[in-house]
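STRUCTURE:
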């Protein structure tokens, strides 16, 4: 909850009695919320993506990588105009709040010199060896922050706690 009583000094920090959740949002959530280019998404999936994006606007914080990889992926797949879909509105919102430390956590992640699609902050777990290389930046951001984090992925909507991504 964010209001005058429980304001934050920095994204995701506790002040007063409230903890503000920090989210990392997979691009596919916003793409599905646009209701186009997602034939695999049934109506329940689309609605879940829209509802979860809308929930972010009400007092939570989003985490992005400081190098702009996630924002760049959003910009490649969504419209900066904020229209016509809910995912496009999310793109416009993220762009408008990216420099606001109370709404956006900028996380430094370190690409591996031998493989720029892999990151030092990505867990070295054999079970994750086949994890999609294009999505590793989202996990790296989640692991790169010390704040309470949740990762939003497309339906079935999964909110994954940091403990599941190696934190």
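SEQUENCE:
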């Amino acid at each position: 909850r964010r209001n005058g009583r429980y304001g934050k000094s920095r994204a995701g920090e506790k002040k007063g009695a409230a903890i503000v959740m920090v989210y990392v949002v997979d691009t596919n959530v916003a793409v599905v919320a646009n209701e186009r280019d997602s034939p695999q998404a049934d109506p329940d999936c689309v609605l879940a993506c829209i509802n979860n994006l809308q929930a972010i606007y009400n007092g939570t914080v989003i985490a992005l990588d400081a190098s702009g990889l996630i924002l760049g992926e959003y910009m490649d797949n969504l419209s900066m105009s904020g229209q016509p879909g809910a995912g496009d509105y999310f793109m416009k919102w993220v762009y408008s709040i990216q420099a606001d430390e109370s709404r956006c956590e900028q996380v430094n992640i370190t690409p591996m010199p031998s493989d720029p699609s892999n990151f030092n902050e990505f867990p070295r777990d054999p079970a994750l060896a086949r994890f999609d290389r294009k999505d590793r930046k989202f996990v790296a951001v989640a692991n790169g922050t010390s704040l309470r984090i949740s990762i939003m992925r497309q339906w079935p909507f999964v909110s994954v706690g940091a403990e599941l991504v190696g934190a």
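REMARK: Residues 43-56 form the longest helix (14 residues).
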